[in-house]
Amino acid sequence: MTRRIDALDVLRGVAIMGTLGTNIWIFTAADGPAEFLQLGGSTGVVETFLRFMSNGKFLGLLTLLFGVGLELQYRSAVRRGLRWPGRYLWRATLLFAEGALHYVLVFEFDVLMGYAITSMIVAYLVGRSRRAVTAWMVTAGALHVTMVALVTAALMVGPAGGGALAYPQDSWLDQVAFRLRYIPVFRAELVFIIPMGIVLFLLGARLLRAGVFEEHGAGLRRKLIVIGLGVGVPLNLATSFAGPAWFAVDRYLLAPLVALGLLGLITSIVLGMRGAPGVLRKGITNVGRTALSCYVFQNLAAGVLCYGWGLGLAGRLDGLRPWWVTVVWAGICVLFVVLSSLWLRRFSRGPLELAWQWAYQAPGRGTAPVTAEGEEARLVTGGRSDGRGAL
User: Fold this and answer.
1) DSSP for 321-364, written as a single string
2) I need a surface site. Which of 168, 181, 237, 381 has the fewest CB within 10 A?
3) Which residue ranges make up each domain of the chain?
């Protein structure tokens, strides 16, 4: 049991670092998010390869882990005789509120809002029959593939837009107003995240049931590695260099396939380790235990470093791309590894996880003793050694 739990924490930590590996290219672009809406424009071979290393893969991995977490919370509710989805819907509401604040105040491409909506849907599916779950996965998957195909066809006809958006880099308040003004533009990714999320949430739950995090799941993990890394990586590499028209296929179809391989590989490595965890593994595990806090912190730190209202490095160091971008990514990762490790010496959860726990328990505070509901809240808010956190 401990090894399975450790694998979840490590996977979550890797996913958080990987999402920064994607987002850092947005923060460090001279045109900010406008460049992302042009699908990266023209980049050199090195930068294209570096983007390939993270684009979409860790979003897919994080989505799978959300599904695993939902399944664990469902099991906890059933084991304790609690009504399901019950207060899980309050948990999803808090996640949506967190994502909305994160979008408005920090980052245009927040994923938490999409995860919140997806979790509300999947909460009603996770306990249904295998046939019903499979039908939902096939339907959502077909819808997702259709949308990707339509977008790809459109991009082959004409280039992506977005260049007309002048992003205000020098004023944080102007950025907030900009995000509010262009909500339909920056929230359009939810159209892809929700159908894809339904599939990956349910797949994550199914993999957990199949024993992918257990010692006896070695055969399943090998299959994931072969499919995800042996098949997915070459195809994903090809679409990364194929041009902007293949952006949707690259990010929303092949990258999640690679994420399955990463899940199998990282879990196998963790389960194969012997002895006490080293410094690196402890640091990644601590990031996983404070995943929500680290996710928000990394985007806030990147904004301070890159935008004109902060240090303005995006404009000053644009001529040094792509090398300085990797340095900033590594520096932010080291920073939140250190901060999360120091924080967990005194607290059982990250700062946002503690706030989430308070908000989750607030509706029932003072009306009943904390028994099974209190235990459910601990599963929801994260910070446990079993890795059953919100992220």
Assistant:
1) TTHHHHHHHHHHHHHHHHHHHHHTTT-SS-HHHHHHHHHHHGGG
2) 181
3) 2-278
Radius of gyration of the chain (CA): 20
Residues 14 and 287: their CA atoms lie apart, in Å, by: 8
Identity of residue 101:
L
Helix (H), strand (E) counts: the chain:
20, 0
Q: Give residue-wise pLDDT tens across range 43-76.
A: 789 999 999 999 999 999 999 999 999 999 999 9
| pTM summary value | 0.90
Report the distance separating Cα 330 and Cα 158, nearest Å.
Answer: 36
CA gap 150, 223 in Å, rounded:
30
Average pLDDT taken over every residue of the chain: 88
Q: Token match 């893969």: residue?
A: 57
The helix/strand/coil state of 104 is helix
- What is the Cα–Cα distance from 118 to 148, expressed in whole angstroms? 18
CB-based contact 91:373 (threshold 8 Å): no
Query: Which one-letter amino acid corresponds to residue 348?
Result: S
CA 200/CA 206 separation, integer angstroms = 10
The pLDDT-based confidence of 119 (bands split at 50, 70, 90) is very high
| CA gap 382, 131 in Å, rounded | 31
Work out the number of other CB atoms within 10 angstroms of the CB of residue 241: 12
